[in-house]
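Quick review question:
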């Protein structure tokens, strides 16, 4: 069996993934990354899980890297009127990179995590694939992983078709995390909003005016980072019909609003396009997902270096600059990029 290094947070998913690997007979060890002051709880949970399963645990302090690469980017994006996804930035640059580097340096054959995704081999090349549990699928979050990391990856939970399987396994193994709820929050923010966190640690948000559907000024807003494209609730405006955020202009500080139906877009432009394996054609069709919780939509893609233009077969609602558009071919991830603007 392989020598495997698993990223362990101590939560139910990573703990069950660890138990699966051990029960399969792998020589498995665990790695916990301490990425902020709030990760003391994560470290404690990982220590309990590793001890319970009698698995060696390695601890790496990644606070400085996490702060400079993930937290700083998170703040800068919101302050620029975009809507970031910190996990997408963290995965290739911090979490999986440090896991991979530690594994290579210390003679591990494979790396593993508790993510809901799979590895698919197509014509001798490995790709991130969709999980058997579609509701929990996290392939979208992993689209920026490079091929050298994908080639060593194992996803022990990838073929589990229902979360109850994981919960039942946790109970059977009497894992400390068996009854813990799934984590939903931003891992480096606790007991405050993201806006309060950014204003306390970085900068105040740029202010401007709400601009109505007819171009009319509707009054001052509280700062551009408080809003996202497609938003309706929380605008604190009285208007004769439902209105939505259509565009956030970071230069003027103005937030442009539209009527219902006008928050749909025919396409998006992307920057920072990443492909785990080169695509020979510069123009091709794929299914595209514009946010983690969205369904894929058929689209035509035109690549130009690390930028792309994506035109949807059917207009898509609330394409948010800062979020990612991820390309799928069947059940595999073939690339993606950050949304820079709507078309």
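Suggested answer, residue by residue:
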């Amino acid at each position: 069996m392989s020598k495997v290094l698993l990223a362990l947070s101590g939560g139910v998913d990573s703990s069950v993934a660890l138990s699966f690997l051990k029960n399969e007979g792998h020589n498995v060890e665990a790695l916990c990354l301490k990425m902020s002051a709030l990760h003391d709880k994560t470290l404690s949970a990982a220590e309990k899980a590793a001890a319970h399963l009698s698995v060696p645990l390695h601890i790496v302090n990644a606070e400085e890297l996490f702060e400079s690469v993930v937290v700083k980017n998170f703040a800068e994006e919101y302050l620029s009127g975009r809507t970031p996804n910190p996990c997408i930035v963290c995965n290739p640059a911090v979490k999986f990179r440090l896991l991979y580097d530690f594994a290579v340096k210390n003679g591990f054959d494979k790396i593993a995590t508790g993510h809901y995704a799979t590895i698919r081999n197509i014509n001798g090349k490995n790709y991130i694939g969709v999980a058997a549990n579609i509701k929990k699928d996290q392939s979208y979050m992993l689209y920026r992983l490079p091929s050298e990391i994908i080639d060593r990856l194992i996803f022990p939970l990838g073929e589990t078709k229902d979360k109850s399987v994981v919960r039942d396994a946790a109970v059977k193994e009497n894992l400390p995390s068996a009854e813990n709820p799934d984590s939903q929050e931003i891992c480096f923010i606790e007991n405050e909003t993201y806006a309060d966190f950014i204003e306390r640690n970085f900068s105040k948000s740029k202010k401007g005016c709400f601009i109505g559907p007819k171009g009319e000024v509707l009054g001052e807003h509280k700062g551009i980072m408080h809003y996202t494209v497609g938003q309706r609730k929380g605008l604190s405006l009285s208007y004769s019909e439902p209105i939505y955020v259509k565009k956030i202009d970071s230069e003027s500080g103005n937030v442009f609003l539209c009527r219902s139906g006008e928050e749909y877009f025919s396409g998006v432009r992307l920057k920072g396009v990443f492909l785990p394996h080169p695509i020979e054609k510069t123009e091709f069709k794929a299914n595209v997902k514009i946010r983690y919780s969205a369904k894929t939509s058929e689209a035509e893609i035109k690549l130009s270096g690390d930028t792309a233009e994506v035109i949807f077969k059917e207009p898509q609602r609330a394409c948010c600059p800062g979020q990612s558009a991820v390309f799928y071919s069947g059940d595999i991830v073939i690339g993606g990029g950050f949304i820079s603007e709507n078309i």
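Why it works: The longest strand covers residues 264-274. The domain at 205-259 is CATH 2.30.30 (SH3 type barrels.).
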